[in-house]
Design brief:
By secondary structure, this protein is an alpha+beta fold. The protein is built from 15 helices and 10 strands.
């Protein structure tokens, strides 16, 4: 039996269990009943989605499992969470949201560990991040065939989040998998650069955001931000970057720049990503432009980006930052070895969001905000929402999997 067939059979077997958990949660919840469920089809992509017709490789990645599909539908998923908690959203204070918190956003680098990729950062109620990360934990456990592991990991996540709101000096133990991942890191700088540069693809249709005038402008901005000479950011090579799932349709580029000397082994790689405008999630405040991205990473990331900057090409805005030499995002099927790994990551992220959600404030207003979040967080309804939305995501993925390929 192929790996894909085993996964499909396992997911089909777990669908009734997830539905049963949803019914049990609804029957046992002591909080007010939920106001509305996800309307039928709201989490569906639609068989004729034009982007998938133009990107068969992306469609194949979404067919790989419910978690990949879940990563791609973040805007629709966020709207579903807003609708579900609409009756209590007004009572919850606005915090700094990651906006797309999930297990595979957890990265290990030379600089540190934790949630990364702040493209969807915004301001809004903590429930937005809490539900999304909880559904990710549940789907990860389903894909690995670990019954009960998603619930246990979410309990650890909530426990860490509460503990950190009560005591912002709380620290999470480093998950065991972090040492395993770092143990495989390349120690040669030249080898790191070569491996990462291999991700650069030749440009076919879209023009690069790296014409000479634009790159001079970007170099000046980065030099001013970092107090380094403009020559540090002189472009040597560059091209398209086609990685990711949630950001698969955004323009991305990877550019190799000179670094401190003319030697090749101290060059620096810069990732350039198009800034995507907010997508109509009405319970969050997400102003157009890149400022929300830098605010999110400054408040939530354990380690901030190096060489952050912004530049414009025509009507498009791009944000830019340096890649670390070694960077590895969690892969549910390859990196996680046991339910314990999932639980340790969940605890670590709970601490990170417990610090980051009320981050960026002076001591006294931060303390007030932490207290308000604790008082207004609808915990029983969070767990019910995680159960239901995990089930509904898997069902939407099953419908997507059985639909015919879109026609371009």
């Amino acid at each position: 039996m192929s790996g894909g067939s085993r996964l499909s059979r396992g997911l089909s077997a777990l669908l009734p269990a997830l539905s049963g958990l949803a019914l049990a949660a609804a029957a046992c919840a002591h909080s007010s009943p939920r106001v509305v469920t996800v309307p039928p089809g709201e989490l569906d992509l639609g068989a004729t989605l034009p982007e998938l017709a133009r990107s068969p490789g992306l469609r194949a990645r979404l067919l790989g499992g419910p978690h990949g599909y879940f990563r791609f539908i973040n805007p629709a998923f966020s709207r579903a969470v807003c609708r579900r908690f609409r009756d209590v959203m007004g009572a919850q204070p606005a915090v700094t949201l990651h906006g797309d918190a999930h297990v595979e956003q957890y990265a290990v680098t030379d600089l540190g560990r934790g949630l990364t990729d702040f493209d969807d950062s915004s301001q809004g109620p903590a429930a937005m991040d809490m539900v999304r990360f909880g559904v990710s934990l549940r789907l990860a456990a389903v894909e690995r065939g670990w019954p009960g592991a998603g619930e246990a990991a979410y309990a650890a996540f909530l426990r860490a989040y509460r503990a950190t709101l009560l005591n912002p000096t709380t620290e999470a133990p480093e998950p065991a998998l972090v040492a395993r991942v770092r143990g495989a890191f390349e120690q040669s700088r030249a080898a790191c650069l070569a491996r990462n540069e291999a991700l650069i693809e030749k440009l076919e249709h879209a023009p690069p955001p790296d014409d000479e005038a634009t790159m001079i402008q970007a170099a000046r901005t980065l030099a001013a931000n970092s107090s380094l000479p403009e020559g540090f950011f002189a472009k040597k090579r560059g091209g398209a970057l086609r990685i990711g799932i949630g950001s698969a349709l955004a323009e991305k580029y990877l550019i190799r720049v000179e670094g401190p000397t003319a030697a090749d082994d101290d060059d620096v790689l810069l990732e350039v990503k198009q800034v995507r405008d907010p997508t109509g999630v009405d319970c969050v405040r997400s102003a157009p432009g890149p400022s929300r991205i830098f605010v999110g990473q400054a408040r939530i990331a354990y380690e901030p980006f190096r060489f952050p900057g912004v530049f414009h090409v025509g009507s498009k805005t791009f944000w830019i930052h340096a890649w670390p030499d070694n960077y590895a995002e969690i892969d549910i099927r390859k990196t996680l070895e046991s339910p314990r790994d999932l639980e340790e990551i969940a605890y670590d992220v709970g601490v990170q969001l417990g610090r980051g959600h009320p981050g960026g404030l002076a001591a006294e207003p931060a303390a007030r905000l932490r207290s308000e979040v604790l008082k207004t967080l609808p915990e029983a309804r969070l767990e019910e929402a995680v159960t239901d939305l995990a089930t509904e995501t898997v069902e939407a993925w099953e419908r997507f999997r059985s639909s015919p390929p879109p026609v371009s």
